[in-house]
Each structure stands twice: as structure tokens, then as C-alpha cells.
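cron nightly-structures :: item 1 of 1
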Amino acid sequence: MHDSRLAALRAELDRHGLHGFIVPRADEHLGEYVPAAAERLAWLTGFTGSAGLAAVLPDRAAVFTDGRYVLQLQAQTDPALWERRHIIEEPPQTWLAGHVPAGAPIGYDPLLISEEGLQRYLDAGLAMIAVTANPIDAIWTDRPAPPLAPAVPHGLAQAGRDSADKRADLAAALREAKQDAAILTDPASIAWLLNIRGADVPYTPFVLGFAILHADGDTELFLALEKLPDATRAWLGSAVAVQPRSVLPGALARLAGKRVRVDAATAPVWFAQTLRAAGATVVAGMDPCLLPKASKNPVEQQGARDAHARDAVAVCRFLHWLAGAAGHTTELEAAARLLAFRAEAPEFRGESFPAISGAGEHGAIIHYRVTPETNRPINPDELYLIDSGGQYADGTTDITRTVWTGPGDPPAELRDRVTRVLKGHIAIARLVFPQGVAGPHLDAFARAALWRAGLDYDHGTGHGVGSYLSVHEGPVSLSRAAKPVPIAAGLILSNEPGYYAPGAYGIRLENLLLVQPADLPEANKPFLRFETLTLAPFDRRLIERDLLTAEETAWLDSYHARVADEIGKRLDPAARAWLVAACAAVG
């Protein structure tokens, strides 16, 4: 199947005079989760990870992904068709520059790549040619239709701020920057700004569309009009002009002579190219919604606490069930059981991402996704990793626990590795740091205990999380590769160090953290700290007590006491008794 698709694409490229073509795993919004109609990379290659890109030439082709998906890439793609490459160690522009003749035209879809992304190919000396119609669409004869899920209001009881107030604040910032308008291409930004939610993509409740925010606060929203019920149209108000997606080029043309902000990192380059062609001045700048959206207001912060307490009940019930299930269940059954526990909450709206339910060697696949073909039993005396999350009307959750299935004792190596990961987790959770510090500055704290043993992990330590929005939210992340955006109060970030032994086991321990001002009476500048939102026990059988310092032990015992106190009273007697035992002091 995939060999014929690759051959058909090469024929299409030859017809258009292109020597090659790049196929990002992206839609027109450059988001992580995309509708079925935009799964071009999966259709062409078979690779279904949420981060990747293919490069196709006449005589060779390659698929690139990051460390989370290297094992999945090997499992899902045909090595006779595709070279498999690590996108950091050998970026696609470097691979292309080494395999194409000088000046050979390489096609790209300007709606599927940002201006920053395109520039990397140009800097490599490649002759990049924008195509007006994606050649894959010409050969994907059974391509699904675009989604048409309705947009719905996101009430003030959850949003915390009126859309008109948000638009007024952002408009004032545009005027101060002497900018006439800003282009919004991230549906999460539009959802936050207009206080609406939807169901156009899996796991993330937003509506696919584009918007122009003007410096007077008026907003133009471009989307399929079928997605806008009368009640939602009334909710948006008269200051939001709703128009079909087809009129967007004309709306951009009307910005001729204006100074328009476009996010070069997150917006498709088509917008900057179209605006410049119309005579507008494009000003590169961060999407104006990103930081305000990430900095949760007090209502959203309380919603996050409530959602995590609700989620903790489901997770603790699941862990109690799992304690007696080894040898009698499978990865798929376990994921389904956790989903069922979450679904009992009336506020539950769905998973925030596909659960990563990996036993034994599958835990080493960082973003493993169990399928009927890969499903295997969860056996006694092995590690089991479960990374999952929920979407609730008032918040988004994401938690990972690694447990020993028993009944035997875990080997010393596992206890050592898990404890080193836990030490990194505690190091982040206990940090107090000055305002102005950014995510890359904190990443090493999570790795120090592993580094001392010559160990590391191939993913970031933390990412932002939305408020009933995306489980992976920018602009801040705890990662060596992240841009140094200062951490601000109100952000929700994950704390998830790990360690992976390919073919054997995987370890990851994840909580979500809310950034708060730190009360330091003698501080000479403002400082910040983390409030832990996630409430579920770590597996004490996997902890090597002698590797923990007194401060680390105190943090762990205090955290477990809090879990037992706040969540135990919400559980049935059997689950409560299990939780009390699981949260016993290690000190």
C-alpha cells in the first residue's frame, strides 16, 4: 500500500517539475492533534506519531521524528521505502542538502510550515518552492472530509474572564506596539480569546479556524459557518465578525499598508507571504494570546485544582484495581479501566491524549500507543507505565505513574533507576527560583541524579498544559531545546523526568505543577515556586530509601500524607485502605 502511494507521489512531483517534497505531520494550524483529513504523513508512510516529517526525492525518501517516537517509527515504516532518522541528530534540511543537486526545486505546502521552519531549509541552501495545491491531496482519493463539529460557549464559571475584556487588553498591547492587527492561527488561542470550545480534533476541545484581532478590539473569525449554532453566534457578540474560510485571502488583502503581527514560529508561512504580497508590513512577534492564555486566572487555577482532585479519585481507584490485576489483564484492558473510572465524573469530557499503557519492554517506547496488534498481558513482576490524562469542563490533567506489578520484590537496578528519576522529580517540585528564569534553566535539575550515574532521557522534562484546552501548551517548557521564555505565575507545567532501557522497561514519573509567587520575606527580587496539582501515590516498592536525602524524604512523605488526606475520603473503604498503605511514610 505505502509503496504504491510513494510511487504516486513521485509521479505527481515529476508532473509539477519538483525534485522533492516535504510532508510535515501538520495541518493548517500547525498543532499537535490534527483531523483525519490532515493525516498526510500517516497516509503516506504508515507512521502515526504526533511529531514527524517525511522528505521524498526521486530515488530515496526519509521519515524524521524525535526521541519519543524512534521505536514507533521503526515499527510502523517499511525500511525498503523509508530511511528512519532522528530529527534532532540529523535534521531534514541537512539530509536534503546532502542528497539533492544544487538548485534542485524542493516543494512545500506553505500552509503546513511556519516561517521559522521554512527558513531552516533556506539557510541550508535549498531551493524551496511553494505549491498552491498539496500534491498528496491529488492522489489521496478517499481523503476524509474536514470536521464540522459545532462551536460551543465556554462559560465564565470556567473561563474566569469575559472575552471582551481579553480582547481589549490584547488590543491595547497591539496599539502600544504600533501594530494594527495580529493574525491568530492557533485554534487554542482563538478558543481562549473568544471563550468557545469545540470538537474538531481528537483529545483537544477547540474549533478549527483563523482570526484577525484588530487594534480596536474588533475580531474577524474565519471558519465553516456550519460550525456556529445561533446560541454560539449570540455568545460571541457583535464585535466578532464571523466569515467563511474562503474569504480569508481577501481579508488579508485589506490589511495593505498596515503593520500586522504574525508569529513566525506558530503561524503557517502562507500568512506572511500573502500579507507581504498585498503590501502589508509583517511584524514577527509571539501570538499575543500565548502568554495570557498560559497564565491561568484565579478561576482557572481553582478549576485546575478541582479537576485534578476529581482525576486523582479515578487514578487512585485504578491503581488499587491494578494492584490485584497483574497476570489477569492486558495493556488495552487497563487503559479502558482507567478511562471508565474517569468517565464516572459528570464533568469528564474525554481523554486529553491517548493513554500510554506500556508493560515491560513497551514502557521503553516513550509515546507507546497500545493497539490490538501490540496489546500484551501485564505480567507479574515487571514494570508497568501508565501515562494518561483527562479533559474536564474546568481543567486538563496529565499524569504518569510507573508501578511494580509484584508479587516479588523489584530488582536493585530498577529501584536505583526509579529512585534517581524520583529525585529529579522532587528537585523540580521543590524549586524556588527568581522571576525571569526560563524552562531551559530548570531542565538540568531533573537530570542531575541520573547524570551522576551516566544516565539520561531523550525528551523534555516538562510542557505547558491548558485550561480545558491542549495538554501540550506553549510557550514555556522545561527542555534544553526550548526557547528561553520566562516562567510566569499562573502557568501549569508538567514535571516528568524518566529513564528508558530499550527492549526492557521504561520509567516516567509525572505530576502537573502550578506556578505561584514565592513568599520569601528576605528576597531582593520576586521569586516563584511550584504548587503540585496532581495527587496520586508513587510506588514505594520501587524507592531505594538510602538514595534519598532527608529533604527529599520529607517532601515525599508530606506529599503522600496530602494524597491520603485529600483523596482517601473520596474513596470506598477498600480503596481507601489501599491508599493509606500506599502513602505510608518512607522515612
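cron nightly-structures :: done
The longest strand covers residues 511-518.
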